[in-house]
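Sequence, please.
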C-alpha cells in the first residue's frame, strides 16, 4: 500500500466522519481464542490495559480464566468494520506471548500479522529442536537479521512463529521459516534478500532483470559409496538402539541372585553323594571333646573302686 498521497494506488484512511451515523455494525460480531495455562498470570495482569486499547476502537473484550479464553466483540458505537478483524489478530498475538506494547501496533493500517505453524509430523523432537534453533541462531542473531531485512517483528514460541509487519515482509518471513524447517539454512535466503535490498537502492537497476545477480543454490547429492556408508551406520545405530530398548524392557526390578557355592554345584551334579565327605575341623573337635569326657569319667570310677 502506497503512503504517497500523489500515487494512484493511495488509499486514504477511514475516519469516523466518513461513516454515516457514526456507526456501521448492526449485528454483533465476536471472535475468540484460547491461551496456554502458563500465560494466565500475565494476561490477567495486562487485561485492564487490553480493554483500554479495545475501547479506543469502540470494541469490547471478555476474559474467561476458567475456560482459558479471550473474546472480542463489536458494539453499537463501532464505526470501523475492519477493527474487529484487527482485534482478532490482537488477541491471537497475545495468546502467542507477544508483549502488549508490540501487539497493539496491529491496529495500525499497514501492519498485518501471521501465525506460522512449524510443527513437523513424523520427525523426531531432536531434529525439530535443532532446526528451530537454526532459525533463531546463536544469541538470536539470525532472527535479528530476518527482522532487519524484512522489516517485521518475529517471535518464535513453541511450535509457532508470530510475525508482525507489512504484507510483503510477512511473505518473505514465511518463506524463510518454511525453508528452514525443510532443512534449508536461513543464510541462503538472507543472502538473496540482502542482494535484492542493495539492488533496490540503485536507480539504474530498477527496470532490469536481477536474476543474474541473485545466487541459486542447488542441493548437492552425495556419492553412492557415501550413501551406502551412511545407510550402514544408520542401520547399526538402529540395531544398537533396539538392543538397548529390549534390555530395558527385560530388566527385572529385583536384585540379581547371589553366585552359587561349590557345594551347591556338587549337589546339583550329584558328585557330593558319590565322594566320601571329609570331616570338618568342627566335627573333629567335637569327637575329641567326647573322648576326653569319657577318659575323665573312667579315671573317676577307677579311683572309687580302689577306695
Amino acid at each position: 500500500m502506497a503512503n504517497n498521497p500523489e500515487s494512484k494506488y493511495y488509499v486514504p484512511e477511514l475516519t469516523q466522519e466518513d461513516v454515516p451515523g457514526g456507526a456501521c455494525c448492526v449485528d454483533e460480531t465476536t471472535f475468540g481464542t484460547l491461551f496456554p495455562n502458563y500465560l494466565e498470570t500475565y494476561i490477567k495482569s495486562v487485561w485492564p490495559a487490553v480493554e483500554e486499547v479495545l475501547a479506543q476502537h469502540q470494541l469490547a473484550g471478555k476474559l474467561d480464566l476458567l475456560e482459558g479464553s479471550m473474546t472480542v466483540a463489536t458494539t453499537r458505537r463501532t464505526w470501523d468494520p475492519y477493527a474487529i478483524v484487527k482485534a482478532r489478530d490482537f488477541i491471537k498475538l497475545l495468546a502467542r506471548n507477544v508483549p502488549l506494547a508490540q501487539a497493539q501496533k496491529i491496529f495500525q493500517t499497514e501492519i498485518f500479522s501471521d501465525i506460522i505453524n512449524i510443527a513437523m509430523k513424523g520427525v523426531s523432537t531432536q531434529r525439530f529442536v535443532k532446526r528451530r534453533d537454526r532459525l533463531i541462531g546463536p544469541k538470536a542473531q539470525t532472527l535479528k537479521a530476518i527482522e532487519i531485512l524484512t522489516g517485521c517483528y518475529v517471535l518464535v514460541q513453541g511450535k509457532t512463529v508470530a510475525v508482525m509487519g507489512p504484507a510483503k515482509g510477512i511473505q518473505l518471513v514465511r518463506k524463510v521459516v518454511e525453508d528452514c524447517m525443510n532443512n534449508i539454512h536461513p543464510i541462503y535466503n538472507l543472502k538473496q534478500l540482502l542482494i535484492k535490498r542493495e539492488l533496490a537502492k540503485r536507480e539504474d537497476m530498477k527496470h532490469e532483470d536481477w536474476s543474474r545477480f541473485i545466487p541459486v543454490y542447488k542441493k548437492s547429492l552425495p556419492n553412492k559409496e557415501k550413501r551406502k556408508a551412511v545407510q550402514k551406520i544408520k542401520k547399526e545405530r538402529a540395531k544398537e538402539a533396539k538392543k538397548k530398548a529390549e534390555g530395558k524392557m527385560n530388566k527385572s526390578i529385583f536384585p540379581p541372585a547371589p553366585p552359587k557355592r561349590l557345594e551347591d554345584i556338587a549337589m546339583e551334579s550329584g558328585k557330593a553323594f558319590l565322594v566320601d565327605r571329609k570331616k570338618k575341623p568342627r566335627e573333629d573337635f567335637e569327637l575329641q571333646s567326647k573322648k576326653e569326657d569319657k577318659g575323665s569319667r573312667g579315671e573317676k570310677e577307677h579311683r572309687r573302686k580302689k577306695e
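The chain is about 50% helix and 10% strand.
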